[in-house]
Amino acid sequence: MYAPADHLIHLLDEPLARDVDAQSLRALLARGVACRPPVSAAVYGVLLNDAGALSALGDAVHAPPYKAPPNAPVLYVKPRNTHVGHRARVMVLEGVPGIQVGGSLGIVIGRTASRVPADAALQFVAGYTIVADLSVPHESLYRPSVRFRARDGFCVIGPAVVASRHVPDPDALGIVIDVEGKPTFEAHTSTSIRGVGRLIAEVTEFMTLSCGDVLTLGVPHGAPLAPAGVDVRIAIADWPPLGFSTIAERSAP
């Protein structure tokens, strides 16, 4: 079983993660430290779990290729090459206007979860983290594109895992995204079609989640675009925020 006692952080220059209290965590981050992702298992993203995102499709959700709203979570994998930590630098491909910054609640699984009922699902959660689920802007929804969602560094995680005992209601958390030079973007986990318990229940109905896996609650509708050369900050509730920067990448000749 995986269960952080308090706040789990993995500094970039240290081989192992630390479990520290909130005050110590903030003191470490105030020094400007860079971090590895605080988790190292599989990360699964979820599409169309935000009421605004589904509503924005309008009548198109009833037309081919969709034909109907999804009756089960639409999942995709954020593979290992995408995983980076707090203060990472993420490249924006030349010719692309920017990266869509999906600030999402990361649900960290604490023990093997299979066919878990919704009313018991939170017992399988070790804690929560902030996930910057990044993508190149695109229109494909029901068939998530690896090319757009799985580029190097496109899943920034951290800076810490907050133990579940510190989060009494994960469905009542504010999300704030600040992209340098742009208006602040605000969202809330309460707009999710499937809350944390229901999402875990529906996912584990058809697949097993293992200890340490991360399931995101999904990207809020209207996620901002970050061009190259800016700093991005994502905060959930009063947790220490996750930060990263974008840099320009030249396309191959």
From TrEMBL:
UniProt entry tagged with the keyword DNA damage: no
Statement: the UniProt record of this protein carries the keyword Amino-acid biosynthesis: no
Signal peptide: none
Fumarylacetoacetase-like C-terminal domain ranges (all copies): 43-223
Keywords recorded for this protein, A-Z: Isomerase, Metal-binding
Pfam family name, one: FAA_hydrolase
Entries under InterPro entries matching the protein: Fumarylacetoacetase-like_C, Fumarylacetoacetase_C_sf
GO terms assigned for molecular function: isomerase activity; metal ion binding
Record's protein name: 2-hydroxyhepta-2,4-diene-1,7-dioate isomerase
The organism of origin for this protein: Trinickia soli
Lineage: Bacteria, Pseudomonadati, Pseudomonadota, Betaproteobacteria, Burkholderiales
